[in-house]
């Protein structure tokens, strides 16, 4: 028989219930992601206050980013010792550990563009080549997010997350959470730089203090030696020898 009004009412009720269930599931997922973010932020704050090494803190950033985003792999790339390259300092994801320490150029690459502009970039399907994205092409071929660590003019690195092929793109809520978390990671690097600078100045001050102490000791010993020689002159009977000592 044909559908009647009762069928329509039943289907509409079921659709409403399904919509409510989907919305509740979405809200639950967002709440779970926020809880994960809060836990990760608290742990990162503890590491900052305890003076942990930047590498250890960035490893935590990569691991927590992967967890809160549901990505297969997450990596942190920062400028290397050279002025034109970046290096992967932390990576989380089974089977991708060999990318730790991987260096790639900044100029004319997608990650270099995010580093230069300070603007995040979502890549749902990448069609470029290895020269344009030397790191990205080695990650899973699903949706990717490239998020700067810091704001434009003060970017410290780039956070890269990637899903497997066929997975859904990252929602806007995840992007907001990751941008906030990336800002904390930028603070990690900034504090590390400040700590190294303070240690360098402390070392310079310590060397200056040692130099002053040595200067005072040397002057005192030279003066004592001169006084001893002056006293010895009176005991020398030969005038020419006494003159040489006195001079």
Task: List the main descriptive attributes of the protein structure presented here.
247 residues, 57% helix, alpha+beta
Walkthrough of the structure:
The structure is a single chain. The protein is α+β, with helices and mostly antiparallel strands and 247 residues long. 57% of the residues lie in helices and 13% in strands. The protein has helices at residues 5-50, 54-69, 110-117, 172-233, 239-246, and strands at 73-79, 85-92, 103-105, 121-123, 144-148, 158-162. A 6-stranded antiparallel beta sheet has the order 3-2-1-6-5-4, sandwiched between helices. Helix 1 packs antiparallel against helix 2 (54-69). The chain is elongated, with a radius of gyration of 33 Å. It starts with a helix and ends with a helix. The mean pLDDT is 79.
The dominant shape is elongated
Report the count of strand segments: 6
Q: Distance N terminus to C terminus? A: 130 Å
**Major sheet size, sense and barrel closure:** 6 strands, antiparallel
Separate helix tally: 5
Provide the gyration radius in Å. 33 Å
Helix-strand category: alpha+beta
Element-level helix/strand string: HHEEEHEEEHH
Helix content: 55-70%
Unreliable stretches: none
Strand content: 5-15%
Strand arrangement in the largest pleated sheet? 3-2-1-6-5-4
What is the typical, i.e. mean, pLDDT? 79
């Amino acid at each position: 028989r044909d559908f009647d009004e009762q069928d329509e009412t039943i289907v509409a009720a079921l659709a409403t219930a399904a919509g409510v269930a989907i919305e509740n599931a979405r809200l639950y997922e967002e709440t779970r992601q926020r809880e994960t973010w809060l836990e990760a932020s608290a742990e990162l704050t503890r590491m900052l206050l305890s003076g942990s090494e930047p590498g250890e803190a960035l490893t935590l950033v990569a691991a927590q980013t992967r967890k809160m985003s549901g990505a297969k792999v997450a990596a942190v790339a920062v400028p290397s010792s050279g002025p034109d390259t970046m290096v992967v300092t932390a990576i989380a994801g089974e089977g991708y550990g060999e990318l730790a320490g991987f260096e790639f150029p900044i100029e004319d690459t997608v990650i270099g563009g995010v580093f230069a502009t300070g603007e995040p970039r979502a890549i749902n399907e990448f069609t470029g080549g290895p020269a344009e994205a030397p790191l990205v092409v080695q990650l899973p071929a699903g949706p990717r997010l490239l998020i700067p660590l810091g704001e434009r003019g003060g970017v410290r690195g780039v956070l890269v997350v990637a899903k497997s092929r066929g997975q859904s793109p990252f929602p806007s809520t995840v992007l907001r959470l990751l941008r906030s978390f990336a800002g904390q990671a930028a603070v990690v690097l900034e504090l590390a730089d400040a700590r190294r600078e303070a240690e360098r100045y402390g070392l310079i001050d310590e060397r200056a203090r040692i130099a002053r102490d040595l200067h005072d000791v040397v002057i005192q010993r030279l003066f004592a030696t001169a006084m001893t020689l002056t006293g010895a002159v009176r005991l020398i009977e030969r005038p020419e020898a006494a003159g040489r000592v006195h001079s």
